[in-house]
User: Fold this.
Amino acid sequence: MSIDAKPKTTPSKKRLRKKRGTRKGFSTGANAAAAARAATVGLVTGNIPAQINCLLPENNEVQFSVSACHLKQGHAYVELIKDAGDDPDVTHKAVITADVKLLPKQAGMFRLKGGKGVGIVTQAGLGLEVGGAAINPKPREYIEQNVRLGAGRLLDEVGLEVTISVPKGETLAKRTLNSRLGILGGISILGTTGIVHPWSTAAFRASVVQGIEVSARQGNDTVVLTTGGRTEKFTMRELPDLPNGCFVQMGDFLRYALDSVVEHKIPKVIIGGMVGKLTKIAQGETITHAGRNPVNMQLVASIAEEAGAPAEVIERIRQAETARFASEEMLKLGISMKFYNALAARVIRTLMERYPNQFHLRVMICDFEGNKITEANSE
Assistant:
């Protein structure tokens, strides 16, 4: 069928997609810094402001609204409601609080603590003290900076202790990968710049790299890269002897994951996936998002031919839209295993050409229910 001959898509048949907004938001770190500064200003002036300016990295100054507060002698408490903008962040609308209290006879002292709902670091590798609060280094810097800006001359006389809390943080943490990184009991206080960009892939990409860094620092010689939750459960079931820290959901970011593996000299890599993503990897795609280049059905057809499919089936596969169609055709012919073995071998060949002598590679393939089909290893 020629392009001109394709039927027009009616509005009712169009795939419905959630409209992506463009409004920026603010990180947990930015909200914590603003809350701490508002509380500090309250201690200095005797009145907690309804609006507070907060200085973020790159000289961004942003105004935040205080949602609740109270002030007692030597102690100020402020709540802010986190606004993630149009980013689908689990902490959107979460309450972030700061308790600031005076430390008599400790002039100039600044002490930062994590309260309820802020996770505790239980494993090395995050660049944070084991047993301490999961408040990342950059937010620590600008929280202190804003407290000192708000305190002014007050710190000539006393010190200040700041406790950051997220009342529902423990519940929110169940929707994150914090426990995998050894952060328990709450969320992390994050935000390198303090600004959250809507629908940005940067945060997820950074979490992939961080997961590999943590695994390397923990001394693991193996990292298991999966494309999502289903494939991760599959690999965890198949590899029960590996610690949880070895498993990293790379999503679509194969390139960043493998570049990080090479940087940290991790000698063994296992990739777990299903036919669609693995076919994209086999064809040389290192960013495997569905919205980028489509699956190369010519490649899928050639793998089917290698598995022994007849000419008419090979032609149908060439004309198809998805690699899953090829899987179903192979099943009908009873040659699925040959097809999957050929696909796994093609993935290994492609990646070994891109990363020669950098690591040993094992590819594990599962079906759409998460059941193991086959696997292959590099030399």
